[in-house]
Each structure stands twice: as C-alpha cells, then as structure tokens.
Amino acid sequence: MGRVHARAARMAGATIAGVAGSRLEKAQQAGLGAAKAFASADELIESGEIDLVHICAPNHLHAPFALKALSAGLAVICEKPLATDAASAALMAERAAEAGLVATVPFVYRFHAMVREARQRIARGDVGRISLIQGSYLQDWLLRPDDDNWRVDAELGGPSRTFADIGSHWCDLAEFVTADRITGVCAQVAVVQPARGSTSPVVTEDVATVQFRTASGAVGTLATSQVSPGRKNRLFLEVSGTEASLAFDQEQPELLWVGDRGGSRTLMRDPTILSAAARPYSPLPAGHPQGYHDCFDAFVADTYAALRGEHRDGLPVFADGARAAAICEAVLTSARTGRWTEC
Ligand SMILES: NC(=O)c1ccc[n+]([C@@H]2O[C@H](COP(=O)([O-])OP(=O)(O)OC[C@H]3O[C@@H](n4cnc5c(N)ncnc54)[C@H](O)[C@@H]3O)[C@@H](O)[C@H]2O)c1
C-alpha cells in the first residue's frame, strides 16, 4: 500500500520527505521517491521534517505509530483496520479529536463517484424507508494452504483477519451510504485452511457471515471471504427501501444499479447527470473509466485539503475507523458466544 499512498500523495502535490520500513535497507529500497530514508518509524516521526504521516505497516503497528505521531503534533493517515482491538482504536480517535489533528482512514470506496451518487439518492429519499441492507466482500488470494501472509498471524494482523481486513470496508461503506448505523450483530466465523506456512493451527477466520440490525430498524446480511475461488475483490452492496433499491459492485465502479417496481436500469458514471455531491469525484468524462487509483487519490487529496483547513464532505476519520473496529469486535464476540451482540 506504500506505493499507492505515495502515488496519491504526489498527485495531491505533496513532497515525500521521508520513508521508514522495517529496517533502514528496506526504506532505502522502497522506491517511493522519498527525499530521505529513516532507520525507523520512530525516527521519522521525531525528525521534525514531516507534516503528515501515512501509516501503511502491518496492523499491529497502527496504534503505536499513530499515537506517537499524534503526540508529536503530526496529522496522520492510518490504514485500516485502525487497530487490532476496539479499545485502542477508540483511544486513537479520542487522541486525534483532543489534539484537533487531521487523522483519516483509507475507507477509499467512499470516493467512487457512484457511491456518492447512491448516498445522495438515499439522502434525498429516492429509496424510501430502508428495509434491507445486504451484500458481500469476497476474495480468493488466501484460498490454498500455501497462500500465506502476515495477516494470518493474529499477533501481527489481529484476532480477526477476513472481517477486520475487508468486512471493515463493507461496514463503513454500508453506514456511509445509508447514514444508518449497525447496532447489533449475530455472526459466524470459520477457518477453512487450518495450517498455513509456519502458522498451525490458524486461528484467524477465512470466512465470516453476519446478520445485523440497524438504528433505523432495517435488517441486513453480510458474507466476507478470502477463500472464494474466482472472486478477487468483489465488494457488493445493495440497499432496498420501500420505494427503490440501489446496488454497487466495487469491481464495476462506473455503474450503479437502480431498481423499482416499474423496472430497473444501470446508470453509468457521467458527470453531466450526476448529483452535485458526486460530481467532484467524477473528474473524467463519461466512457473514460475511473477506478481504484482515482478513489484513493481523491481520498488523499481530500485529507490534504482538510490539512489546509478546508472542509471536505465524507472524509473517513479515526472515529469511523474506531466504529469499524467496534463492529469487528462485536462480530468476534457474537461468533464466540453464539449470541446477538450490540455494537
Ligand atoms: N485501504 C485499502 O484499500 C487497503 C488495501 C490493502 C491493504 N491495506 C492496509 O494496508 C496495510 C499494509 O498492507 P499491505 O498489504 O501493503 O502489506 P505489505 O506486507 O505489503 O506491506 C507492509 C509494509 O510494512 C513494512 N513494515 C513492516 N514492519 C515495519 C516497521 N516496524 N516499521 C515500518 N514499516 C514496517 C514492511 O516492510 C512492508 O513494506 C495493512 O494494514 C492493510 O490492512 C489497505
């Protein structure tokens, strides 16, 4: 993710003043176009040469690095999951708010134009009273027993793997688009590959399914998986209400499906027909596809605008990261106890 962050930072006009990795040599070889390599993240944070830190390290390092950066008075972009437990994530959100510092989390799917369009249509009442929110986030990159990653190790990735890694994105997107709040979950998790690399038994889940309810009284379901053959990064969200339904598929981000009793149609991103809320995230004319880099660039550009004191709607901040961490913890608790769990 360091490369994605560095590219977006440059696009937003930043100078990459320094980079740190697990060791000095790694930082020197990072190839991010940084002016300087630091021996450690601590050295980078304490250097006095940085305005904003992008934290793209493994999950267990997010909380210590971000808390240190905030104490040093630095703005922070910290990758999701914000922390490996809900209490640490809440503390990070509290410290950022107390310090009045810009502190954001790359829940970047919020920055697709068609997501903004869906949000705007729901806000203006097109969907009616929301009844059902459902979808999935499916990948296959950890399908086989020899597929391995630091995320598998609970010490590095945290006690939840699949849900924390991708379920967090889905829950943030669902709450963002609907302006509703998941209030309770009933979850199941399963390990499909019990041994990977040096980890045996694997304790972090390969799949998780969640039933949930929301503050407005809607019900929902979510399936997340890193072992679904053929699915690469298939985040799918569908919202149904008393008047209409809307559906968004992250692998087809130029499209938004809209349905009602009279029929359905698929809207293609076109700045000339999009709502004012979606248009800023649609810099290219229709038919010139935008994608992941565009939404990531928009997220970083909006964070930097906030750093200059400008308001940007829908910027995912540490409080949103803490929210996702609380849902994640409720999912694990529910799966362990077999009970509905509030969040
Ligand atoms: N927002 C998104 O869309 C998105 C997508 C993918 C990953 N992520 C998040 O980004 C983070 C990184 O994931 P990744 O897939 O790029 O992992 P990765 O393993 O490819 O990269 C992790 C990097 O952290 C460095 N690192 C390890 N220990 C360090 C230390 N002590 N100090 C400084 N750097 C250290 C490693 O050298 C490596 O370069 C994760 O938290 C992940 O959840 C977010």
Automatic annotation (TrEMBL):
Keywords (A to Z) from UniProt: Oxidoreductase
Domain GFO/IDH/MocA-like oxidoreductase: 115-246
Superkingdom to which the source organism belongs: Bacteria
Chain ranges of the Gfo/Idh/MocA-like oxidoreductase N-terminal domain: 2-105
Gene3D superfamilies, per database record: Dihydrodipicolinate Reductase, domain 2 (3.30.360.10), NAD(P)-binding Rossmann-like Domain (3.40.50.720)
GO terms of molecular function: nucleotide binding; oxidoreductase activity
UniProt keyword Metal-binding present: no
InterPro entries, alphabetized: Gfo/Idh/MocA-like_OxRdtase_N (IPR000683), Gfo/Idh/MocA_oxidrdct_glycsds (IPR050463), GFO_IDH_MocA-like_dom (IPR055170), NAD(P)-bd_dom_sf (IPR036291)
Protein name: Oxidoreductase
Origin species: [Actinomadura] parvosata subsp. kistnae
